[in-house]
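Internal QA ticket QA-208
Title: Verify multi-chain structure generation after dependency bump
Assignee: T.L.

Test input:
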Amino acid sequence: SRSLNLAVIPGDGIGQEVVAQGLRILSAVLPQDVKLETKEYDFGARRYHATGETLTDADLEQLKRHDAILLGAIGDPSVPSGVLERGFLLRLRFAFDHHVNLRPSKLLPGVETPLAGQPEIDFVVVREGTEGPYTGNGGTIRPGTPHAVATEVSLNTAFGIERVVRDAYARAQARPRKKLALVHKNNVLVHAGHLWTDIFTKVGEEFPEVTTEYMHVDAATIHLVTRPERFDVIVTDNLFGDIITDLAAAISGGIGVAASGNINPSGEFPSMFEPVHGSAPDIAGQGKADPSATVLSVALLLRHLGHESEAARIEEAVSADLAERVGEPARTTEEIGDALVARVTG
Amino acid sequence: SRSLNLAVIPGDGIGQEVVAQGLRILSAVLPQDVKLETKEYDFGARRYHATGETLTDADLEQLKRHDAILLGAIGDPSVPSGVLERGFLLRLRFAFDHHVNLRPSKLLPGVETPLAGQPEIDFVVVREGTEGPYTGNGGTIRPGTPHAVATEVSLNTAFGIERVVRDAYARAQARPRKKLALVHKNNVLVHAGHLWTDIFTKVGEEFPEVTTEYMHVDAATIHLVTRPERFDVIVTDNLFGDIITDLAAAISGGIGVAASGNINPSGEFPSMFEPVHGSAPDIAGQGKADPSATVLSVALLLRHLGHESEAARIEEAVSADLAERVGEPARTTEEIGDALVARVTG
Ligand SMILES: CC(C)[C@H](C(=O)O)[C@@H](O)C(=O)O
Ligand SMILES: CC(C)[C@H](C(=O)O)[C@@H](O)C(=O)O
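Actual output:
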């Protein structure tokens, strides 16, 4: 008999509420013969205030034993900006070598978009997750004086770029349109930009069926709002990926439905799945949060572990549920969970 | 009698056509007693291919003598990516210390936006122009091998941040809503981010009437497409400014109408005014380019030199012309110029 040994990190704010629904749908959809074991971990603001810890080596040892991780949200205004982001979220991505940060964008039928004319949006961003300007490499001299200088160093390696670029090509190859765009800023960030561009071109020789294009990140934001239907798969660096995936989420139904996977493709470490949204402390505990992004993250988790048909069932359920919501009064987090459970089991 | 001694750089592609119209409007609107002198300079792809030069020290000496610079566009596919951008555009911004890169976004009546519901958009981005990841500070080791490493260093100084932040506060103070947002990514780029945030807070004490907020760049892209009316003045770093001003242009009528000023507020060096769009080689020489962005850049130029009422007249003319175009067949570059000349003189 098979098993799924899941680490669950509800985290801060609405994290608790949305993860609870994500787990309900997961249990409901899993095949009978797959034994689900979950272990809940306490990370985020509470733990930080109580112990000063964000994520310890011992925590990583424990998390490592799981097949995958489901995260709600981490972050609270009571903690200084950067502490939990860098001490927990980024530390986990780096420690578990989550170099493929997968962020699909699909405008589902009936879902509102800020764009006019309800365009067809169905693309995936493959964001590099372990390099670029995210490595914490930088410093400040003469802080607090008029002569202060602060640096941030973007680190880019052939090793790190090649593996994520190859992953993106493989994803493009597996999709009907087989299109891949590299997004960077190689006319200004020439060193990193040329490394990305050269590797993108070289790896492309292994994927002759994939049509490629290069686009500057500034131009990409224009295309995302004027012609989003042109995109199929996008591969990009850590920071550009951060920026364009929030924009991508905004145009394809909002962060209420944006899912993501922090993936270690080799399986050496567990991959982590989380909604793109944050902890939304302003609405926490009120049953107002939309659990759809977490539920869709559960679908990505299942697909990653090889449960393709269950992943598809969840995605169809969310899609149908969103279509049904149009013009209806807002439902609670739990009511949406009820509806989704009914759909995936029905 | 007064004079305006202008350097004109038509540049590549559609640059020639749009600058020609910009100059017509400028001549038409200038007060009788202001003597306009223009000198045309040949920069861009032609000169690069002929001489290998992009912008020499001698060129800078000559340009320095003018009151201001009007640029069409620089860039051509025949020149490797980065050569003209860094060798001309960025070199000029750095040499003339254009630290205030001013990019207004206003959705004019009748102008198409990709956003649903025709939102009210009227904000200005003050983008830092001489620091950040744009300094060309970086390098590559072991290029072309699997062990290549490329770096890009973002340089941020208290001096450089404070002057642009103060400029932005003053602009916010002078506007009816008096709102200023700092856009950065201080939860990840903590060194640069904290320097920006600290200085933003400190300078704010001099402007008690200005309401401030901080926003991460990823969140800013969401707000720009979901609630653009919330923005009044935005101040941000060189790279984030590059990205969000293209998005801002896209939502407020497209790069056909987006103007910009590369400003040296002290007047030590001439400021440069240019449309945000590029050289668009695909439509060059066909009379299809919309000169409105260049004409609006002329308005920014006039305002910078103290000709406020002439600047306003140009902006009203462009606004009226755009409103009139709705549903009309496309006009040529020259026809649009004719209409604008008629309006500013009429
Ligand atoms: C919270 C922050 C560190 C994070 C990032 O910048 O990667 C977030 O914005 C995201 O996109 O997952
Ligand atoms: C052409 C390029 C160097 C430039 C920039 O990145 O600043 C352009 O995108 C701009 O916004 O003016």
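Spot checks passed. Chain B has a mean pLDDT of 96.
Status: verified.
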